[in-house]
């Protein structure tokens, strides 16, 4: 029996190791390419460790493109949408999970129904509307809609709160004279912190990596986000095979996402564990 467990464990570890190599190989190759000279990119056999190794591409990418503007623009969108939009989504999720009001389930189902509408259906009407407001080529079309929350986040947090926040605790707070906002801030938010942090990390990655929205609305190079700026670099330098420069920009853009996931991964596990226990 012990031998069987060891064999099963070894097989599982081997499968995870193979999967990790497959997932990390493109990242490692991107990092390796960013440290190579242009003439050494297609050397045969391929060299994972660059020889010679140079950091000139990381220095050059800052002068070749307004990448700092791209960072600041993406960061500005992330800060506004995550701080305000996530707060609104959390408050809506608490209301749908623990507050009784007329037509609650009907309203929630209607909101869920909007998830079925493809973005391609609303893309042109939204563009026309933002054009009439003279918001095209500004960050407003990428910020303002996100301030009103996200139904996917509302749905996830609602399910979490329904299973993790005891109704008796809410009723006890009401008997003590606690209103909606005080109950939400002192009871719901602390309990739902793992789920909120997990959604914040996912939201950060989604906003930071968004390409289609900025591509539609932003035209001036200094107003573009980091992902659109990298695509512009590809169109500029792909013809002369300057892949190290492009990979340098890509690695720079990946650093914030990697850091956010690294610091928030415990919240992913904690939120899933709590949901699983309560479910």
Automatic annotation (TrEMBL):
Keyword field: Cell membrane, Membrane, Sugar transport, Transmembrane, Transmembrane helix, Transport
Keyword Cell membrane: yes
Topology with respect to the bilayer: Multi-pass membrane protein
SUPFAM superfamilies tied to this protein: MetI-like
Localization terms from the record: Cell membrane
Keyword Kinase: no
Stretches that traverse the bilayer: 7-29, 71-96, 108-128, 140-157, 187-208, 243-264
Residue intervals of the ABC transmembrane type-1 domain: 71-264
Gene3D superfamilies xref list: MetI-like (1.10.3720.10)
Cross-referenced PANTHER family: ABC TRANSPORTER PERMEASE PROTEIN MG189-RELATED, ABC TRANSPORTER PERMEASE PROTEIN MG189-RELATED-RELATED
Family from the record: Belongs to the binding-protein-dependent transport system permease family.
Protein name per the record: Multiple sugar transport system permease protein
């Amino acid at each position: 029996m012990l031998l069987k467990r060891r064999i099963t464990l070894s097989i599982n570890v081997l499968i995870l190791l193979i999967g990790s190599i497959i997932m990390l190989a493109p990242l490692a190759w991107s990092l390796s390419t960013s440290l190579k000279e242009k003439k050494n990119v297609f050397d045969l056999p391929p060299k994972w460790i660059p020889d010679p190794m140079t950091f000139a591409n990381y220095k050059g990418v800052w002068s070749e493109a307004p990448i700092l503007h791209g960072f600041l623009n993406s960061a500005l969108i992330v800060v506004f949408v995550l701080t305000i939009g996530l707060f609104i989504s959390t408050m809506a999720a608490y209301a749908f999970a623990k507050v009784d009001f007329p037509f609650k389930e009907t309203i929630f189902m209607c909101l869920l129904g909007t998830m079925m509408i493809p973005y391609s259906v609303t893309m042109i009407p939204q563009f026309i509307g933002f054009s009439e407001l003279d918001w095209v080529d500004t960050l407003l079309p990428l910020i303002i809609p996100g301030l009103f929350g996200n139904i996917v986040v509302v749905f996830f947090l609602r399910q979490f709160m329904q299973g993790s926040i005891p109704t008796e605790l809410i009723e006890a707070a009401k008997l003590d004279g606690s209103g909606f906002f005080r109950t939400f801030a002192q009871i719901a938010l602390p309990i739902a912190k793992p789920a909120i942090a997990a959604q914040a990390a996912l939201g950060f990655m989604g906003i930071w990596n968004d390409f289609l929205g900025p591509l539609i609305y932003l035209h001036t190079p200094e107003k573009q986000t980091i992902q659109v700026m990298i695509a512009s670099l590809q169109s500029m330098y792909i013809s002369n095979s300057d892949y190290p420069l492009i990979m340098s920009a890509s690695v720079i853009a990946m650093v914030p996402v990697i850091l956010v996931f690294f610091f928030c991964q415990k919240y992913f596990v904690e939120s899933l564990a709590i949901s699983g226990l309560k479910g």
